[in-house]
């Protein structure tokens, strides 16, 4: 295995320049011969032992220090530690110097800031010019130039770190990718840089790849595959993929082969990272006076288990089949078939999918495919993964999503999966409701259920921070107009300032949705992810009988005892846009509405409906009052008195329009094939006649079943009647008190 690693490293050095590339094939053959010198029996035993150890590590939910030490036993840990410490130590030293140079307060001194730019060590000319421009711009705007200068330097250091991680190898690239979705641990400048890390590497020698296939499958390559090419179609940090055909049935397949020695390499690096994290946990406060809200070592242990899981292709096959079982029947979703007869921990064979990457603009246009359309499908699928079953694909980068000419979105690479706890799924929807209501106190408490905060943490200081962020114009245009990345970045700054601990599942969700929005914005700069996500949220709120979601629905449509007709209508209209829209869910809502649990919503609804009925009877009321006033007022003053005391208010007229739209939306759900509109006076009686004349026998039976809730219907009718009578009596009493004043001279006219 060490010889294979040496051959791989030598080959990468050879292919790193144009000058050497011409002799690389010949040298690769020689190096492969050296690497394969041990006997086939030795390799078979080594592969079997490695597979067993890898499988045990991959299935562990978390790897502690002893697990990682045992995994790295017998490997050149000391020399690797020196190499890593040398590279990262120089970078850490630069960070310490940066921190020492930052002023403790706001010193508005442009000359000092500019001098610091000129004297900054390790800053290239382009970066220095960029920093100078930011300093001068900040001074013109009356801002602290030092703050702008150090923000620019942070961005420069972040780019340095990105390049450093790439040089250190696959394990550190994966660590950087994980940190890019942890705003609670990493400052914004580093989040932005690390999010650009690409998981691409040069391919390793073909002969070495075929040796891995034969060792793991126990057969010659030509006995299993036909037309196996010498060049892979793609190569990443952990392995590479070939396009071939199965000899047994002629099916075109994707053959994924793991880089030799990856388990050992990652075990060694993760052991070193875990040791460094433990040292930071124990000493950072003593050395730098910095208190970490979250221990780093446990995070590394969780990440190490997930990374080893990526190396176990048998586990990946299980993940793919579970994903297909849960989500393969969703509209326009495709999952490749796994060929288990060609499966091992280092070799995975799946169905070949003909499709285009969403970032391949030419290929998408050639097939007349819309990136935005496929991103919409991906967003709803991601939400259903997160909120339906909690089991989700945690790495949907552009290379793992293919747009098919059939209109299906195909998911690839199931090495990184995650699960969200059930209580957190409902808390996410509740959090959206609280955001819509601008209930920042409830939002802050949501972080307990989301497992962002320990229950012992006081959330009261967090409330004004949330209010300042969202009330600064962020949601003035509505939640559906928010840019998701801007929202994540803004909340990330808050998370970094307070004792947040973003759970691993949530970090992966943020990464998934941010990637999808980025793909859409590439084609449509005005794309809004939250606007596309809201229909599914609305559909869940309306149709899911889970008590937590029913409470969230109440909070959304009932505020201060008033039923918000516009919001409820918006829920209905948005739910129709969801790919999972089903009229059955609305019937379930009606059953809940008439149940004892729906009492609060029913009571608020009855009050608003009473206002509508009061408005509908307004003309009759005017006539009654007009006739009464004729008995006590001169004829020429009757109309002015009626207009003065009984003028139709605009908001009441608007309410009639609101209910008209609501009734039409409800009718379209109850009677989906109806295209007509109401005629005559808009009231519940006409609405019911309209529905009864249009519905099928089956739908009529459903309505009759709802009518069996006689207590709720009687209560609703009584509540409406009382409210209507109360409003009528109040209106007439007010009029009576006004007209009982003296009826002569100016007083009477007044």
Secondary-structure map with pairings?
Layout: H1 2-14, H2 18-21, H3 24-35, H4 40-58, H5 65-71, H6 77-101, H7 110-119, H8 125-140, H9 145-168, H10 170-179, H11 188-194, H12 206-217, H13 221-224, E1 225-226, E2 234-235, E3 239-246, E4 252-258, H14 262-288, H15 296-311, H16 313-327, E5 333-334, E6 347-351, E7 356-357, H17 361-366, H18 371-389, E8 391-393, E9 401-403, E10 409-411, E11 417-419, H19 422-436, H20 440-449, H21 462-474, H22 484-497, H23 504-523, H24 529-543, H25 547-557, E12 558-559, E13 562-563, H26 565-576, H27 583-593, H28 599-616, H29 618-629, H30 635-645, H31 650-670, H32 684-694, H33 697-707, H34 710-739, H35 745-749
Parallel strand pairs: 5-10
Antiparallel strand pairs: 1-3, 2-3, 3-4, 4-6, 7-9, 8-11, 9-10, 12-13
């Amino acid at each position: 295995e060490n010889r294979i690693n040496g051959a791989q490293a030598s080959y990468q050095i050879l292919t790193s320049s144009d000058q050497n590339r011409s002799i690389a094939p010949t040298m690769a053959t020689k190096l492969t011969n050296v690497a394969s010198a041990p006997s086939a029996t030795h390799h078979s035993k080594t592969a079997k032992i490695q597979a067993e150890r890898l499988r045990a590590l991959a299935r562990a939910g978390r790897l502690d220090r002893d697990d990682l030490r045992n995994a790295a036993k017998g490997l050149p840990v000391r020399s690797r530690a020196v190499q890593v410490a040398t590279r990262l130590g120089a970078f850490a030293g630069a960070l310490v110097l940066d921190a020492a140079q930052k002023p403790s307060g706001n010193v508005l001194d442009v000359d000092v800031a500019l001098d610091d730019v000129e004297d900054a060590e390790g800053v290239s000319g382009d970066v220095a010019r960029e920093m100078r421009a930011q300093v001068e711009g900040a001074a013109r705007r009356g801002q602290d130039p030092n703050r702008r200068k150090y923000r620019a330097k942070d961005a420069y250091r972040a780019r340095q770190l990105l390049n450093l991680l790439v040089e250190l190898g696959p394990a550190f690239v994966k660590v950087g990718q994980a940190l890019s979705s942890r705003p609670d641990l990493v400052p914004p400048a580093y989040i932005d840089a690390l999010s650009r890390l690409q998981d691409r590497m040069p391919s390793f020698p073909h002969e070495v790849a075929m040796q891995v296939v034969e060792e793991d499958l126990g057969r010659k390559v030509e006995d299993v595959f036909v037309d196996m090419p010498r060049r892979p179609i793609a190569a990443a940090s952990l392995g590479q993929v070939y396009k071939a055909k199965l000899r047994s049935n002629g099916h075109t397949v994707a053959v994924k082969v793991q880089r030799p020695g990856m388990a050992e390499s990652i075990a060694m690096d993760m052991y070193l990272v875990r040791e460094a994290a433990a040292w930071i946990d124990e000493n950072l406060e003593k050395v730098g006076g910095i208190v970490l809200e979250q221990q780093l070592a446990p995070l590394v242990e969780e990440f190490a288990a997930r990374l080893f899981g990526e190396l176990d292709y048998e586990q990946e096959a299980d993940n793919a089949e579970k994903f297909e079982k849960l989500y393969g029947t969703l509209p326009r979703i495709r999952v490749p078939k796994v060929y288990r007869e060609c499966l091992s921990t280092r070799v995975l064979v799946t169905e070949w999918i003909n499709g285009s990457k969403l970032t391949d603009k030419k290929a998408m246009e050639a097939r007349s495919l819309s990136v935005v359309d496929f991103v919409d499908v991906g967003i709803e699928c991601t939400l259903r993964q997160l909120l339906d079953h909690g089991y989700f694909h945690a790495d949907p980068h552009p290379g793992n999503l293919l747009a098919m000419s059939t209109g299906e979105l195909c998911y690839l690479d199931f090495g990184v999966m995650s699960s969200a706890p059930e209580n957190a799924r409902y808390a996410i929807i509740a959090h959206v409701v609280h955001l819509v209501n601008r209930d920042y106190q409830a939002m802050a408490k949501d972080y307990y259920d989301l497992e962002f905060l320990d229950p012992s943490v006081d959330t009261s200081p967090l409330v004004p921070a949330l209010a300042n962020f969202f009330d600064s114009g962020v949601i003035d245009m509505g939640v559906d107009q928010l840019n998701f990345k801007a929202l994540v970045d803004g909340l990330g700054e808050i998370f970094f300032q307070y004792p947040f601990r973003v759970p691993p599942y949530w970090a992966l969700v943020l990464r998934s949705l941010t990637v999808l929005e980025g793909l859409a914005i590439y084609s449509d700069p005005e794309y809004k992810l939250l606007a596309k996500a809201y229909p599914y949220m609305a559909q869940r709120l309306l149709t899911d009988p889970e008590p937590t979601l029913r409470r969230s629905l109440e909070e959304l449509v009932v505020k201060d005892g008033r039923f918000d007709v516009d919001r409820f209508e918006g829920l209905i209209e948005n739910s129709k846009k969801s790919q999972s829209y089903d009229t059955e869910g609305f019937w379930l809502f009606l059953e809940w509405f008439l149940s004892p649990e729906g009492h609060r919503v029913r009571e608020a609804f009855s009050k608003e409906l009473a206002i509508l009925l009061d408005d509908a009877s307004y003309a009759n009321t005017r006539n009654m009052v007009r006739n009464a006033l004729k008995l006590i007022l001169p004829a020429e003053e009757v109309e002015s008195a009626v207009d003065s005391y009984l003028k139709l208010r605009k908001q009441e007229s608007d309410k009639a329009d609101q209910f008209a739209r609501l009734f039409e939306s409800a009718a379209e759900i109850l009677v989906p094939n109806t295209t007509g509109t109401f005629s005559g006076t808009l009231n519940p009686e006409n609405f019911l006649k309209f529905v009864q004349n249009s519905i099928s026998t089956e739908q009529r039976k459903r309505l009759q079943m709802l009518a069996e809730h006689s207590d709720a219907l009687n209560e609703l009718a009584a509540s409406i009647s009382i409210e209507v009578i109360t409003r009528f009596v109040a209106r007439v009493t007010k009029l009576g008190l006004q007209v009982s004043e003296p009826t002569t001279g100016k007083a009477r006219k007044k």
